[in-house]
Amino acid sequence: MDFSFQEALNKILHSTGFVAIEPGQGVMIVISLVLLYLAIWKKFEPLLLLPIGFGCLLANLPLSMMANTHEGGLFNIFYFGVKHEILPPLIFLGVGALTDFGPLLANPSTLMLGAAAQIGVYTTLIGAVALGFNLQEASAIGIIGGADGPTSIFLAAKLAPHLLGPIAVAAYSYMSLVPLIQPPIMRLLTTEKERQVRMEQLKPISQTVKIIFPIASTLIVVLMLPGVAPLLGMFMLGNLFRECGVTARLHDTSQTHLINIVTILLALAVGSSMTAETFLTFETIKIIVLGLLAFCFATAGGVVFGKIMYIISKGKVNPLIGSAGVSAVPMAARVSQKVGQESDKSNFLLMHAMGPNVAGVIGSAVAAGVFISLFGSGAEGSGHAALETLQTLTASLGQ
Amino acid sequence: MQLIIQSVQVSFLAMGVIFLVLGVLIWVIRVLVHFLPYSAEPAPAPKASAPAAAAGSSQDEDHLAAIHAALAHHLGKSPQDIHIVNITSQ
């Protein structure tokens, strides 16, 4: 084999990424650097935006084979965990292990605030349809209003995988902006008198109730909405690890190492889906705008329902805790506490806001379950993938 | 236009389902709390053979932990930010 120096040099030069880079990839690299900047220097959800940004950077380096669509590539394998609904439910397992249902169980009516805040999901759904998205895409965009990253990723991967990147980035970016987005809406919708309401101290809850609740709620909710099983089931299992007192090792692993490892895999997989072809579109801009509206409407929905509870309870409920119904645990609850203390420094709303905050997680998972029941792949058939498999098996046995 | 009407219908239906599911959960919690009310665990019986000094020290630690938690809650600070350096009994 003859090789001249010139030919060898040419070959090496033509095998570098510099020759193959396209303008779209250049723009995506800049976007990934912005995400890294926001994560590291502005501390916007750094645990997620940093790996998402770096995944995006790697996916857009030409010839790197790191995009989620590159068969056999590293991130293509990571992306299997998103595509096949493995990683978001595992995140929910960890979140469940970190969650204390005590405040919710002590004041169960706050579950309604978690339901009311889902109004953001549905106003955005209507807005997205008006902007030209189909119902499945609009549902995946609307769930951004649930302010729950794993739920958004789970639903986007199921209903609109081509929109996964922008939806995940919008969801996590706005979640980090909750302390900026929510307070003006909360102040606008409440009076000074309402913000000063001091709530009664929460009653303690027996350990047996804390153990039975995740089992009972899984039974009831999954029987009502089978599509929610992966998310809610894992969430409640994680919580059962925490409360039962006999699985300390599993609880410890779920709330630390497991959730950290899965977060890395999930965020890299999402970042790798942000290629120029899927991200640099007019749809992305629409999703970013709709995501912001979703958060605003969700906050407003929670606060307005909080005001209704304030009236019904004759002034015993502080409407500010309603904004915590948007999930985003525990940041939204902290915002309720902070805005409450602006009106009364010695008012402590944090534990009261944790109830709707946890209810928001359940509410957004239920909202996702409703969308899966209506628009999921099994929606036109039996309604559930497991049942469809069973039917296929029965049919093949009958032949 | 048809699609927008459908999306409005979906929204009403879905919000109804969410309120129904969470309403059922509220009812379940109320039933659970009613039948399994909280009862504080009985304090462990003091050991007769335990030395007086050790028992006093454990009680002090319990008091200190309670004061620490109450102060942190009242001031809205993390318990790590509060250092109790001295308690004088009167």
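qc> Chain B has two helices and no strands.
qc> done
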